[in-house]
Amino acid sequence: RRLACGDVEGRLEAIFGRVRAVQAKSGRFDMLLCVGNFFGSASEEEWAEYRTGAKKAPIPTYVLGANNQDTLSYFPDVSGCELAENITYLGRRGVFTGCSGLLVAYLSGTEAQEQPAPAHSFSTKDVEELKTSLLSTPNFRGVDILLTSPWPRDVGTFGNSAGEIDTKKCGSKLVSDLAASLKPRYHFAALEKAYYERLPYRNHMVLQGTPQHVTRFIALADVGNTSKKKYLYAFSIVPMSSMDPVELVKQPQDVTENPYRKLRKEAPKAKAEEEPACQFFFDLNKHQGKKRPSDGKEGGNSQPKQAKKAPQPTGPCWFCLASPEVEKHLVVSIGTHCYLALAKGGLLPDHVLILPIGHYQSVVDLSAEVLEEVTKYKAALKEFFRSKGKRYVLFERNYRSQHLQLQVIPVPLDRCTSEDIKESFITQAQEQQIELLEIPEHSDITQVAQPGTPYFYVELDTGEKLFHRIRGRFPLQFGRAVLASGALLALPQRADWRQCAAPRPEEAAQARAFRRDFQPFDFSLRD
User: Fold this and answer.
1) Is the peptide bond before 116 cis (omega within 30 degrees of 0)?
2) Residue 222 falls inside a structural domain
3) Using CB atoms within 10 A of its CB, is residue 516 exposed (0-12), middle (13-18) or buried (19+)?
4) pLDDT digits (tens, 9 = 90+) for 67-114
5) How far apart are alpha carbons 126 and 45 in whole angstroms?
6) Is residue 204 part of a domain?
7) Of 23, 38, 33, which is closest to residue 106 (Cα–Cα)?
């Protein structure tokens, strides 16, 4: 049983008095871990009583080093030392292992803003050396606890709100990198005078690897703060080395995506994409992460696949091009197997649909030649929208629809990045208990969904994709609502297409304008 606390700032009587009260009520704890500023500008009087032995900390207390020039003098040995009885300075950076096998990694100071790094700061070299010392350990799975003073930058991504703290601006990118690499089960930080217990996050990519333990990030407020924000955190932890592997990797219901996913994606990639001889399919009906090679012999049938024929609709279809139901004034391009049409009640005037001419329900039902032309239209739309300073977001909802509609909506390049778009989709999905997973870059939608499977998927013009297998009810306007939200297009009043339908002459004029602008990029006029 351990305790962790935020910035003490020299208030030794306050923190140790609180520890004694907690132990009197709940029993003995093994140690106190202090992050943030242990000493303050007016620490000397209280500290002298502990330094001289007149007073003693009630339990073994471990502290991080200085975060500013003013308190450097309290830490005489950069490699760590005993400051007083029961109070130990851990050192600049390193790892210590408790007698129970608990593995604790620590990094003192704040991120250096200049070189050479001041004595109260850490540099890229410090972080790399700490990472190397652990990652080079055989069978390294992570650490039990990580102690840093600064928050990790972007820790709130995909998570619950951190209140008034903007996690995209505060904290350290180097600490984010450290946390992403060391995969702590608990990560404690301070300095922001705020309490924030983030939802636990994954340390593996779903569908791409075996499950790993989750991380819980906890930021603690300053001791004795007048706002009564939480500064002391009690927790029980069994060392990773002593845990049953199955118990260790259990995923809580409120687990989120890893907030440092972008950092991990920038790491050297595996060579899976360089091995075209073996294609992998991910079977969502079986254990996650299992792969089955596609060798043309699935189900014992080794006959080559026949080209798919478009099935006939069971009733009137609004999107089969030959159907009298089609609103042909919205059509802006016609290829051999597909066509483009402006969306009725579009989110934007250039909101466009890619549709098969024949009757197909979803992308996974398409024949090879239709899929090839869909790909050509996506490439043409990417080039077209990029020429206008935009990137497109494409989504498909194969649920309560009978004809494939690939919704393509442009977003200004200067408004948000591809990571912002993915974060918005994943965050809003989590709010509605929808599990939206990133598909591995070397696979596509046909590899994760079988024909007839209800699903929702998002694709960016970078090729990045998110997928949700629909197992129950699903909000019909979800994709459009995410894009209309304040985080992206900020058009919440246009989230429902039925509220956006324009008179037919206005629709026809918009279609003519789009057709004219798209003409230089329209391969169907050249083929």
Assistant:
1) yes
2) yes
3) exposed
4) 998 899 899 888 889 999 999 999 999 998 877 889 999 999 999 988
5) 33
6) yes
7) 33
Which of 176, 184, 174 is CA-nearest to residue 155?
A: 176
Quick one: 131 and 17 in the same domain?
yes
Structure tokens, 128: 């790399």
Q: Of 249, 271, 304, which marks where a domain is finished?
A: 249
Where do we find the tokens 């899929």?
A: 371
pLDDT score at 274: 32
Strands 406-412 and 352-356 come out as: antiparallel
DSSP H helices, 84-189, are: 124-135, 173-182
The side-by-side arrangement of strands in the sheet containing 390-398 is 331-334, 338-342, 352-356, 406-412, 390-398, 455-460, 465-469, 437-438
Which segments of the chain have a pLDDT < 50? 268-307
Write phi, then psi, for 251 (nearest 5 degrees). Answer: -100, 120
Q: Can you tell me the distance from the alpha carbon of 394 to that of 465, in angstroms, rounded to the nearest whole number? A: 9
- Kindly state whether residue 282 falls inside one of the protein's structural domains: no
Measure the CA–CA gap between 124 and 177, rounded to whole angstroms: 10
pLDDT the model gives residue 280: 30
Query: 336-356 burial by CB neighbour count: b if 16+ within 10 A, else e?
Result: ebbbbbbbbbbbbbbbbbbbb
User: What is the rounded distance in angstroms from the CA atom of residue 124 to the CA atom of residue 172?
Assistant: 11
Phi, psi (rounded to 5 degrees) for 288: -60, 140
Task: State which of 206, 224, 249 marks the end of a domain.
Answer: 249
Whether 264 is covered by a domain: the verdict is: no
